[in-house]
Amino acid sequence: MNMNNNNDGDDNDADLKDNESDGFLPHKVTVHITNNMSNHELGIDCKDKNTDFGFQSLKYSGSYVFTFRPQFFSGSLYFCKFSWPNVVHSFDIYIQDRDEETCNSDCYWLINESGPCMVAFNKYTSINCYTWNKVNIRNRKLGHMLDA
Fold first, then answer.
1. Which domain holds residue 118?
2. What is the 3-state secondary structure (H, E, C) of the chain?
3. Which residues fall within 8 angstroms of residue 24, CB to CB, at 6 or more apart?
4. Which CATH number belongs to the domain containing residue 14 in this structure?
């Protein structure tokens, strides 16, 4: 998968490898998001309650990557808005309780019109697809959207 952006919320531990812990902090997690829609450019805006990684635009097969350290006790949540012409969806791209064992240190997502699919590379490669979050956006214009 092509990775053309990397945002790292933690620059203080550059001497540790991404999958290592310093004994006190959990290991880093890297989320890889790939546009799997050949007919749409994909707009992405990912954040948690403290950090907004900013708007990104991806052509087909383009990837966006961000890295963070999960909370020591379960509770990390990162969510994204996904947009393409005349469409906006949201999805919780990392939920610690759901993803920490499946992803370990790397979470791979393929974004499709029907919803995001997590690709897990464990003993066997598996794909688990999800539906979009249910959102009521009546009469609201969301932050960044790709124009039609």
1. 6-129
2. CCCCCEEECCCCCCCCCCCCCCCCCCCCEEEEEEECCCCCCEEEEEECCCCEEEEEEECCCCEEEEEECCCCCCCCEEEEEEEECCEEEEEEEEEHHHHHHHHCCEEEEEEECCEEEEEEECCCEEEEECCCCCCCCCCCCCCCCCCC
3. none
4. 2.60.40
Question: Phi/psi class of residue 133: alpha, beta or left (left: φ > 0; alpha: ψ in -120 to 50)?
Answer: beta
Residues of the chain with pLDDT under 50: 1-6, 8-22, 137-144, 148
Q: What is the pLDDT of residue 24?
A: 59
Query: Considering only CA atoms, which of 78, 58, 80 is closest in space to residue 135?
Result: 80
Residue 124 forms part of a structural domain: yes
Taking the C-alpha atoms of residue 101 and residue 110, their distance in angstroms, rounded to an integer, is 19
Tell me whether residue 139 is in a domain. Answer: no
